[in-house]
Design brief:
Length: 267
Amino acid sequence: MKKIASFFIIAILLITACARKVSQKQDITLSGLSKTNFRTEVDGKQTYLFVLSNKKGMEVCITNFGGRIVSIMVPDKNGQMKDVVLGFDSIQDYINTPSDFGASIGRYANRISKGLFELDNVKYQLSTNNFGHCLHGGSKGFQYVVYDAVLIDNKILKLSYLAIDGEQGFPGNMSCDVLFTLTEDNAIAIKYSATADKPTIVNMTNHSYFNLDGNPNIKNMDWLLTLNADNYTPIDSTFITTGEIVTVEGTPFDFRKPMAIGKRINN
């Protein structure tokens, strides 16, 4: 009887150990991220790491903290998988080191001069956080909030956030959605939508930093860049556009033909 009991105890221990190994394996993404390291609570809401994948083996990891793309594992021309975006390895890194890495920016991407705008004859003063201007939604833009998340399937993630009237100075209760879709031809489609209960302004975007070498220690100065742009908008010393629209002809901004980034980066 004792032998039988011992056998069952050993069997249970083996099953438990195997289950633990399977669980640990499922916790690690293709890019080497641990889902456990992205679980915490921010402002009373739970954060997670969501994984999208397609039949070609491409993997995209997204956290609902700031709606951030954390990693993109995609095959290069030789079929080797590489992580081509910059990101941190844990949610605490994103919390402790404020950044826009991979974030779903809102309510308003880029800068609003002096944080002031007028809409329907009403003037609004926004939160200012960059040289006296409102940058990327203010001091607590959407990159620092926790989105509600629904993993629709292994290729589609929907993030939602309700910005209340007056948040960072913006008018109107605004409900917004960010829909990430990983396609079978290795593309990431991002769709933004928003509705508000009063006139407001909104300009959302994704703020990923790409390094196609898959290694942040390798500078991308040799990469060729092409921009189909005949003009650019100059900025002042505080990075606010002056209102001018200037030709790129004869300037360092002329990338209408393929040009190595490093050839003009210091100009």
